[in-house]
UniProtKB/TrEMBL annotation:
The record marks 282 as: May be important for catalysis. The gene is Fuca2. Pfam families: Alpha_L_fucos, Fucosidase_C. InterPro entries: FUC_metazoa-typ, Fucosidase_C, GH, Glyco_hydro_29, Glyco_hydro_29_CS, Glyco_hydro_29_N, Glyco_hydro_b. Alpha-L-fucosidase is responsible for hydrolyzing the alpha-1,6-linked fucose joined to the reducing-end N-acetylglucosamine of the carbohydrate moieties of glycoproteins. Residues 1-16 form the signal peptide. The keyword Glycoprotein applies. This is Alpha-L-fucosidase. It comes from Cricetulus griseus (Chinese hamster). One of its GO terms (biological process) is fucose metabolic process. It is an enzyme of class 3 (hydrolase). It comes from the Eukaryota. It catalyses: a neolactoside IV(2)-alpha-Fuc-nLc4Cer(d18:0) + H2O = a neolactoside nLc4Cer(d18:0) + L-fucose; a neolactoside IV(2)-alpha-Fuc-nLc4Cer(d18:1(4E)) + H2O = a neolactoside nLc4Cer(d18:1(4E)) + L-fucose; an alpha-L-fucoside + H2O = L-fucose + an alcohol.
């Protein structure tokens, strides 16, 4: 029943034209078809960069944990390393971005195989990575780098890569005096959205024309307070990106997993089953922080095996993976992140055919063999079985596909030669994998069988 209800809006989208107009209501906005590039892209890179990258300790929530929650770890860190009276704002000038080279970032991102990028244009600290007219002396052009980071990255990405350019934007700011006043009025007053957040968001979209607007941080305020529906109606009807822009579901208390564009539901969301609405798994390579942490140790970072598993599970279940990295205060992508990105790209070079532009199949994972996930290209009549463990016997049992003699073909991506398989009754096939030495393997960390003409 619930499924049927959820599917209705999806079905009714099929006839919708991009020229239709949207009313500032969720009922209308939620009917907008998601621009198709997003589902086809499958894999994006999230970048958390800001003044929090200066202390680069504990978390990008550093300011909040230190000053609001007064967590001992953060209070001690400040007492031990900075003079008395040092304020969070004083980190601003130290955010130098000295070695930031946008084309270098673009090269690394392109090598990762990702098809889009989402940069924190402003996190909850309020510091904007562009010269916002509404963030006086608390932006990257007036302070710190003295450069328009958003623009430099947008130019390099557009010029040197085939990635789409997306921007993260935090609606609220932890300590903005107007937000705090509004909050005291239980959000009856709306000074902060009217004088800060809304004008800034219009400026951001008009100036940098992002393909994704990844909002976050409702600060406990409802979408009425943010005028999210009014803004989205403008975004979808009039803005320069009205035909291509994709949004998420973080538009005010209660909207997550319910309203907006695609669903993010929670950080690191990975349900393990198919959802009737497009969704995204945003997660970080450093398990404990989105911003760079100097004290991280190697075991804090997900291994490439774990990352490939996240990608495969997510895509098989209809999601996109948004994998996060945190650059340093001087604009370096730490080599551990760079290595993971390049490894992902190596894996996708061989297996990308089973990821990009695929659809979920009737089964998301195999019911008998663990760590086998399926994707599908209906036009080509190919089901992809991605398996994360190479069986010692070299015989891979797949319980879900039904093969037919003389029609079904099986091949290992990156290898090409047709493989021998046998049919089991009433369903399932056993595939004999090729005998390969370590050096002959087309890739590591996970492999793909292309199954042509199975049902
Ligand atoms: C930036 O990086 C590119 C390589 O991607 C390099 O060609 C260029 O010289 C670098 N620019 C600076 C100013 O270092
Ligand atoms: C909300 O935004 C729309 C579109 O910009 C605008 O017309 C409307 O006046 C706004 N409403 C409030 C209450 O701010
Ligand atoms: C397939 O996925 C479901 C849902 O995550 C899980 O319950 C089940 O154990 C998985 N099957 C295998 C064989 O891994």
């Amino acid at each position: 029943m619930r499924l049927a209800l959820l599917l209705l809006p999806l079905l009714s989208q099929c006839g919708a034209k991009s020229s239709r107009r949207y009313d500032p209501t969720w009922e209308s906005l939620d009917r907008r078809p998601l621009p198709s590039w997003f589902d086809q892209a499958k894999f994006g890179i999230f970048i958390h960069w800001g003044v929090f990258s200066v202390p680069s300790f504990g978390s990008e929530w550093f300011w909040w944990y230190w000053q609001k929650e007064k967590r001992p770890k953060f209070v001690d860190f400040m007492n031990n390393n900075y003079p008395p009276g040092f304020k969070y704002e004083d980190f601003g000038v130290l955010f130098t971005a000295k070695f930031f080279n946008a084309s270098q970032w673009a090269d690394i991102l392109q090598a990762s195989g990702a098809k889009y990028l989402v940069l924190t244009s402003k996190h909850h600290e309020g510091f904007t990575l562009w010269g916002s007219e509404y963030s006086w002396n608390w932006n990257a052009v007036d302070e710190g780098p003295k450069r328009d980071i958003v623009k430099e990255l947008k130019v390099a990405i557009t010029k040197n890569t085939d990635l789409r350019f997306g921007l993260y934007y935090s609606l609220f700011e932890w300590f903005h005096p107007l937000f705090l006043e509004d909050k005291l009025s239980s959000f009856q007053k709306r000074q902060f959205p009217i004088s800060k957040m809304l004008p800034e968001l219009y400026e951001l979209v008009n100036k940098y024309q992002p393909d994704i607007l990844w909002t976050d941080g409702d600060g406990g305020a409802p979408d009425r307070y943010w005028n999210s529906t009014g803004f989205l109606a403008w975004l979808y009807n009039e803005s320069p990106v009205r035909n291509t822009v994709v949004t998420n579901d973080r538009w005010g208390a209660g909207s997550i997993c319910k309203h907006g564009g695609y669903y993010t539901c929670s950080d690191r969301y990975n349900p393990g089953h198919l959802l009737p609405h497009k969704w995204e798994n945003c997660m970080t390579i450093d398990q404990f922080s989105w911003g760079y942490r100097r004290e991280a140790v190697i075991s804090d970072y997900l291994t490439i095996e774990e990352l490939v598993k996240q990608l495969v599970e997510t895509v098989a279940c209809g999601g996109n993976l948004l994998m996060n990295i945190g650059p340093t205060l001087d604009g370096i992508i730490p080599v551990i992140f760079e290595e993971r990105l390049r490894q992902m790209g190596m894996w996708l070079k061989v297996n990308g055919e089973a990821i990009y532009e695929t659809q979920p199949w009737r089964s998301q994972n195999d019911t008998a063999t663990p760590d086998v996930w399926y994707t599908y290209k209906p036009e080509e009549k190919i089901v992809y079985a991605i398996f994360l463990k190479w069986p010692v016997s070299r015989e891979l049992f797949l319980e879900q596909p039904i093969g037919s003699l003389g029609e079904t073909e099986v091949a290992l991506l990156g290898e090409g030669k047709p493989l021998t398989w046998t049919s089991l009754k009433p369903n399932g096939i056993i595939v004999e994998l090729p005998q390969l030495t370590l050096h002959q393997m087309p890739c590591k960390w996970g492999w793909t069988l292309a199954l042509t003409n199975v049902t």
